[in-house]
Amino acid sequence: MLQFDTNLLCIPKLGASKMSSRQGRTSSPLMSDFPRFKALWFFKSVLDADGNGYTNEEDFVRIALVHAVMFCKGAYFKDIYDMYIRNYQEMWSELARAADTNQDGVITFQEWHSYVTTLRSRVRSFEDLPEFLKKMIENHFSNYDENHDGQIDINEYRLYLCGKNMDLKLATDCFQTLLTGKDQARGTINKKEFCALMFDFLFSTQPNSGGTYICGPLQSVKSTVIDVYTHLAGV
Prior knowledge:
Blueprint: E1 3-5, E2 11-13, H1 34-47, E3 54-56, H2 57-71, H3 78-99, E4 106-108, H4 109-120, H5 131-140, E5 151-152, H6 154-163, H7 171-178, H8 182-186, E6 189-190, H9 191-203, H10 223-233
Antiparallel strand pairs: 1-2, 3-4, 5-6
């Protein structure tokens, strides 16, 4: 079972056969503050659609269009596209009211991290989150659920990691850490379980909590990717 070694910048303890996978991977000082690193990864992967280091309403419209295309399987239905855009514009407005502290129409990582840190002291489960944040996480499930059957299996998880340029040799071990109880027999993660795991990923300060690997083995991300993004985000 994967475990984070807090004496080694929170990089998981892996078998000797997998040690080589660390080469060329992230050794960012940010990994020493793993909760902050997770907040950055969520910000980069979920909120900042164009990857320019901050998020704004335009990013949310981009995200809306991606989900609309996925829902319509590539077809164009104006009413559905408009519905997705409206919904994401509403989510943006709610997030901006909560996190855009200087009201400049842009949310930086620093503002996002401050919001997450404040929210962490107020929430105990996914159900406690503001509605807009719950919707964002629920919608993010579709980025994993390739066949739209309401379940994430190991193959879909591996595809998601591939899209993030993570080490696929770690996928099976990481996925197993996410399965509990009935999940283990079923071998899949449903949307409710995904939301709980994503909540844990974003808000837990424990290095070996249940949702640690829902976004993949972050230690396998190439250091250049992290260095470039932290520069853009002003971290």
